[in-house]
């Protein structure tokens, strides 16, 4: 099978982007070929520069314009899209262009603590406030509804009553670092063919 080119969309620090790029770019199955970021000052852009991965800044408004984004996807022959801490909702044209080839990672056990406004520390604070005894990460297919796509995989971690929201964030992040690349690899291995744009 031809090596699959992955585009990672991210908005912030980019630890998941770096983890995915390091994992895949050393192998033969896939390559993280492009980073798309909606914030020109996000640290993830520095990570991409250091790793030698092409990057593009696409504003929230530009994301709504197929004539801006789709040429990028074609230029890098993107076959699969990973949202890794990307805050804007993906427009319908992108979801249509990548059916069952676009996934998102969410820092809770969906359907708990998902939806609009539930990202990053907001999720972990809600988990703490609810007195949950476990949390985790969810990888799911992207649909037009926020955090509503079919769950692909979840990984769980136990919480202690004394855990702060920051402790919860650290525990959940360790799950992401350990499991996210392998889950993506399993998904890619399950695909019989990657259509070309």
Task: Tell me the name of the CATH homologous superfamily.
Answer: Formyl transferase, N-terminal domain
- Percent strand equals 15-25%
- Helical proportion, percent range: 25-40%
Q: Under the CATH scheme, which class? A: Alpha Beta
Q: Which CATH architecture would you pick?
A: 3-Layer(aba) Sandwich
- Structural class by sheet pairing and helices: alpha/beta
Order of strands, main sheet, comes to: 3-2-1-4-5-6-7
Gyration radius from CA atoms, angstroms: 16 Å
Integer tally of domains? 1
Overall geometric form: globular
* Unreliable stretches: none
- Output the number of helix runs: 7
Question: How many β-strand runs?
Answer: 7
Q: Please write the string of helix (H) and strand (E) elements.
A: EHEHEHHEHEHEEH
Distance between the termini: 17 Å
